[in-house]
Write a structure and sequence with these properties.
The structure holds two protein chains of two kinds. Chain A is of the alpha+beta class. In chain A, 54% of the residues lie in helices and 18% in strands. Chain A folds into three domains: 156 residues, Beta-Lactamase (2-Layer Sandwich); 92 residues, Orthogonal Bundle (Helix Hairpins); 142 residues, Histidine kinase-like ATPase, C-terminal domain (Heat Shock Protein 90, 2-Layer Sandwich), CATH 3.30.565.10. Chain A has a five-stranded antiparallel sheet, with helices on both faces. In chain A, strands 7-9-10-12-11 form a five-stranded mixed sheet, covered by helices on one side. Chain A has a two-stranded antiparallel sheet with strand order 6-8. In chain A, a hairpin with a 5-residue loop joins strand 11 and strand 12. Chain A is rod-shaped and about 170 Å long. Chain B is built from four helices and seven strands. In chain B, strands 4-5-6-7 form a four-stranded mixed sheet. A two-stranded antiparallel ribbon of chain B has the order 2-3. Chain B has one domain. In chain B, helix 2 packs antiparallel against helix 3. Chain B is α+β, with helices and mostly antiparallel strands. Chain B is elongated and about 85 Å long. The chains are: A alpha+beta, B alpha+beta. Strand 3 of chain A pairs antiparallel with strand 1 of chain B. Chain A: Its main location: membrane. Chain A: InterPro entries: HAMP_dom, HATPase_C_sf, HATPase_dom, His_kinase_dom, HisK_dim/P_dom, HisK_dim/P_sf, Sig_transdc_His_kin-like_C, TCS_sensor_his_kinase. Chain A: Its EC number is 2.7.13.3. Chain A: It holds the Pfam family HATPase_c.
Chain lengths: 470, 157
């Protein structure tokens, strides 16, 4: 069978196989029984017909004149019945019924064997039994010699053939009866096999969808039950290791949140002290001034890092909330740039009067981080382009620098990821893009990192026009 | 798989219908024609001897009996059955035994005469296709032990 004709489903395959086997078996049984019944029927019919013909001949021969004349031959033929030929030397008595009750083989067998012989032939589209016999002369002592009289007669076997056909038909009918039964059994067998398989599939689907508590109860003690048990064990160990991992993750996050929280109070004191130090720095020796300036900048960086860490912790803890306002995007972006003194270094292209419902502070964080990165790592010109289409707004930040290397692109939003391993002491916290990503996601939008055609890095933020309060 | 279907179809077809056959044996040929009846008489030496009476057909045992009771006619043979009228013999056949009811008593025949009757009846029976192991019982008009005897012909074994 070709693969196309062979059905794919397990149920269909089982059905076809069982029905095929059953029908073949039933057909073979029906065939062999019909065949043996036919043989028995034909044999008994032949014996009966032969005995009848011999009896008819034997009943008239004692009254038959010998050597016979034409009249005697005619009487003999009439006694045997229709389709009969009687010959004696040159004499011949036949009825004109059209069926020639003798073949060459039959005639020579009659003469050679000097016994009654039979042969089946098909004539006029019907089966016939030809019976040919010599009539012998028996001496009182039992010696048998040919008399020269030969009798040939044909007997119609159509009736037997009809009986045989009836047998074959009833056998075929019985075989056909097995068909729906076989189909039913196949369906039942398929169901008993397929139900556990389907349950197992559903369980695997739920596992794949993240429901690690999904199990299927094993039924019976067959291979499918073993498989079910194995799948359940696999799900158990998966669930256990996932739980352990989650716990570790939660521990780590809580530690980061706690640490940054604990650091904030001493750091604010330190920042206040450093501000005092900054005011006094101008009057210091050059060496001391340089050291104190380093201390000032590093302290500010530490403060920013702790603030970023706390922000990330809020996202991780799920406590970050959107505060949605009607915001004029162009104005908000301009304010953002102006507040950081970047207005003259950044080209802003934004349509006026574009009102969006979003969290103004978070939009500020997003744009400030992206533009800050572009100014720090890229080359001018840094461009912020805002466009609105359909139900979303696109904010693109591009620079004229060398762009982001291909192998770095997938990791730019990872926490503490540094593109250049050697340049570890950058002013950034390493959390900026991670925070941007979280903020964009909080708005229900997305962000992609790529490179512009000219070679510069390009970050594209897509925000939905209508942000739900969440 | 593809080769199975034609074979299967042929096998199924041969199960139906009656196929022609070659010539097969069907048993003994019928018999019963003859040029005449064999009657048994006694020759000059006192021996039982068969004599063919040309009748052109075998006929029945009562017919042969009637011919036997008519005697040998003009010949060198004689019969040891006393002349009797009418010459009718009633024949009853049972399994293995032919019963002849003759129209005379046991005193009317000699043992050779009884052999004549038994052999003539058995000859007709054998020539008509019957088995040679057949016994013959003669029922006389008077009930004697002779009537109960089952006899065979010394010439037909």
């Amino acid at each position: 069978m070709t693969g196309r004709l062979w059905p794919r489903g397990l149920r269909a395959r089982l059905l076809v196989a069982v029905v095929l086997v059953t029908v073949l078996g039933a057909a073979a049984a029906a065939w062999s029984s019909a065949r043996s019944a036919r043989n028995a029927l034909v044999t008994s019919t032949q014996q009966r017909l032969t005995a009848a013909v011999a009896g008819q001949i034997g009943a008239i021969t004692p009254q038959l004149t010998y050597p016979p004349d034409q009249g005697a031959l005619d009487r003999l033929r009439a006694a045997v019945g229709v389709h009969t030929l009687v010959t004696y030397r040159g004499l011949r008595s036949a009825d004109g019924t059209g069926v020639e009750p003798v073949t060459g083989a039959l005639r020579s067998a009659v003469r050679a064997r000097n016994r009654l012989v039979t042969q089946r032939i098909t004539a006029q589209g019907r089966p016939w039994l030809l019976i040919g016999t010599p009539i012998v002369i028996t001496a009182p002592d039992g010696a048998r010699t040919p008399s020269g009289i030969e009798v040939y007669t044909a007997r119609d076997l159509s009736g037997v053939e009809r009986q045989v056909d009836g047998l074959a038909r009833s056998a075929a009918g019985t075989a056909a009866l097995a068909l729906p039964l076989a189909a039913l059994l196949a369906l039942l067998a398929a169901r008993s096999v397929l139900r556990p398989v389907r349950e197992l599939r559903d369980t695997a689907r739920r596992l794949a969808a993240g429901d690690l508590g999904a199990r299927s109860p094993p039924q019976g003690a067959d291979e499918l039950a073993e498989l079910t048990v194995t799948v359940n064990e696999m799900a158990d160990s998966l669930q256990a290791s996932m739980a352990a991992m989650r716990k570790m993750q939660a521990d780590a996050k809580r530690f980061a949140a706690d640490a940054s929280h604990e650091l904030r109070t001493p750091l604010s004191t330190l920042a206040a002290v450093v501000d005092v130090l900054a005011a006094a720095a101008d009057g210091m020796e050059p060496d001391a001034r340089e050291s104190s300036q380093l201390a000032i900048s590093e302290t500010h960086r530490l403060v920013r890092l702790v603030e970023d860490l706390m922000e990330v912790s809020r996202f991780d803890a799920g406590t970050a909330r959107l505060r949605v306002d009607e915001v004029d995007v162009a104005g908000a972006l301009r304010d953002c740039l102006r507040a950081r003194g970047w207005l003259d270094r950044v080209e802003l292209e934004a349509p006026d009067g574009l009102l969006l419902r979003l969290d103004r502070r978070r939009l500020d964080v997003i744009v400030a981080n992206l533009v800050g990165n572009a100014l720090r790592h890229g080359e001018p010109p840094v461009r912020v382009h805002v466009s609105a289409s359909g139900d979303q707004v696109r904010i693109q930040v591009t620079d004229g620098g060398p762009g982001v290397p291909e192998h770095v692109l997938p990791h730019v939003f990872d926490r503490f990821f540094k593109a250049d391993a050697a340049r570890t002491r950058t002013p950034g916290s390493g959390l900026g893009l991670a925070i941007v990503l979280e903020n964009v996601h909080l708005h229900g939008g997305d962000i992609t990192a790529g490179n512009a055609d000219g070679g510069g890095a390009r970050f594209t933020v897509r925000l939905p026009r209508d942000v739900e309060d969440r | 798989m593809k080769r199975i279907w034609p074979v299967l179809a042929v096998l199924l077809l041969t199960a139906c219908g009656i196929q022609p056959s070659g010539v097969t044996g069907g048993g003994e040929a019928p018999t019963g024609v003859t040029r005449g009846v064999t009657l048994y008489f006694i020759d000059a030496h006192g021996d039982l001897t068969p004599r063919l009476r040309r009748t052109d057909h075998l006929g029945t045992i009562p017919e042969a009996m009637e011919l036997l009771l008519w005697g040998p006619g003009e010949s060198s043979l004689r019969t040891e059955i006393a002349p009797v009228t009418p010459k009718r013999v009633v024949v009853t056949s049972t399994a293995g035994v032919i019963l002849l009811r003759v129209p005379f008593t046991a005193q009317d025949v000699t043992p050779l005469g009884i052999d004549q009757i038994v052999c003539t009846a058995l000859a007709v029976h054998v020539q008509g296709g019957g088995p040679r192991g057949m016994k013959v019982r003669i029922g006389f008009t008077q009930d004697t032990p002779e009537s109960g005897k089952q006899r065979t012909c010394p010439l037909i074994k």
